[in-house]
Amino acid sequence: MDPLLLVVIVIALALFFDFTNGFHDTANAMATPIATGAIKPKTAVALAAVLNLVGAFLSTEVAKTVSHGIINEGDGSGSVAITPSIILAGLMGAVVWNLLTWLLGLPSSSSHALFGGLIGAAIVGAGFGAVNYGTLVDKVLLPALAAPLIAGFAAYLATKLAYWITKRPSGSASPRRGGFRVGQIFSSSLVALAHGTNDAQKTMGIITLVLISAGHQSKGSGPEFWVVAACAVAIALGTYTGGWRIIRTMGTGLTDVKPAQGFAAEVSTASAILASSHMGFALSTTQVASGSVIGSGLGRKGAGVRWRTAGKIATGWLFTLPASAAVGAIAAALTHLGLPGLIVLIVLGLTAITGIFVLSQRQSVTHDNAMADVEASSAAVHIPSKKERRAAGRQAREAASQARKARKAADEAAKQAKEAKHQAATELRDARRRLDRDDAATRSLRTPSAATPADTLDAAADAGSGVSEPSDVERAADSRAVEPSNAGGSRTAPAAPEGQHRPESNPTQER
Amino acid sequence: MIEWISFVQVAGATMISALLVVGLYGLGVRLQAVAEDQNRNRTLQRAGSWLCFGLCGVLVLFGIILIIPALHSIVGL
Fold first, then answer.
1. What would the DSSP string read from start to end of A339-374?
2. Which intervals of the chain are annotated as region Disordered (chain A) (predicted)?
């Protein structure tokens, strides 16, 4: 096949990849301000497209990482010749994998699909030496892990800060955080700009790589201006068309992200992506934005992580690189068959793309498939709404009051038990005293010398309010042995009074 | 091999810029809300809030200029 034709096919496919990237990912930056009514849909979509276009021109560091960092371009000492057909295979793998995950609604990353496809194709097409593993780890794999964490932590702190600064006494009249609604226009614009600096550049890198491998450009040079312009236009067009698709579905509802929280998340996302682009880190903008959304959610009051959802998202991320590498490897294996294999690859790839497109048209556009992974990631955090927080507070208060009531009831019961015990003791004492008196009376009848009249005894017992042991009744009657601590004792009451002689005429009344 | 310095730089730049921008903008939002309260100097609060928003914008512009090599001459880098 004519090498020039192959180069043209690769460039066209790369620009198509760029377009889908804008269509799928970058348009979502504007979803929040549209939803909150801060900006008109038409304006928002146009703004996002223009900012992606501008962002693509800002820097070329990431493009350089892709074009002569990860893949050894060839012809130099110790480097491996990489051919346009290998790049085509890798790109085809990335595009097919990307569209497939998009159709199935799996969480994925366009950037990782691109790198995966390229690496898989390079290894199969040109051997393990074709990949520069040091740069791969340094500029792609580690940033892929670190950037979402950094952005998430920044968003967490920023959200806390935003809520702390704007905290006002609940009685104050004016809206407290309304200003963030307008602020989101700017923060979303920054995110769109940042997307342009990172996503568009990956495609520039691929095109530059194929130009270098075909000998149209010197090794180590940056992207040509027409390449930058073409990529910028492609991602802007993708953003514009993708934006309309999102607006159509806006009525189906968005995850509840408050303006202050959204502002903090978007500023963190933009900061992280812009700083990374400057360092030449080729990262997944979707993953950084997801990290920010989760981090800012955790910064809200009473928020908690839904680990199951978060795990699902993380698994999707981990899966993308090896899976697209496998697709790229299969595609590269086809190119080993020479021209027929190459033709088969192109035909198969185009068929797959068309087939997926037709299938996707059959699906109705709903909230579920129109919203990108960033939106989905916000489901990984549970933020209690004001209503839920109030309900929880009410429940806590109710529980506390119930506990108080229960304690009161317990106190009451204890008091009653004490009284009952006291009463029982009193009855017991009464009964004993009567027994004593009867006893004394009988004794005095028997021995007239005992000059203690029953009345005196009774009065004495009354005054002492003592309780005598049943065994030495006599001593108690004589010396009025007083043991008040015994009064509420644990002696069982019914033993004494029941079955005893109870004189009807007993006038004794205790307290 | 791995340039840890650049990771630290990215982390530091992200933290500082995000917190500064959000902090300044938040302060502006707060001052705007305070200006609506009674017994307050409305003009002063309003001016303060716009100052905060302005500083915030300058900060963002500075960050963007830092990224674009062609514009480095503006800030004398």
1. HHHHHHHHHHHHHHHHHHHHHHHHS---HHHHS-HH
2. 399-511
User: Tokens 């609506």 — which residue?
Assistant: B36
The β-bridge partners of A381 are A305
pTM above 0.80, yes or no: no
Distance to chain A for B43, nearest Cα, Å: 16
Three-point CA angle A77, A127, A320, nearest 5°: 120
What number of H helices and E strands is found in chain A? Answer: 19, 2
Exposed/middle/buried for residue A168 (C-beta within 10 Å: 0-12, 13-18, 19+): middle
Label each residue of A433-447 as H, E or C: HHHHHHHHHHHHHHC
Name the residue ranges covered by the structural domains of chain A.
3-167+175-384, 398-495
Tokens for A199? 């996503």
Say how many CB pairs under 8 Å bridge A and B.
127
Any chain B CB within 8 A of the CB of A179?
yes
Q: Is A318 within 8 Å of A72 (Cβ atoms)?
A: no
ipTM: 0.92
Amino acid letter for position A382: H
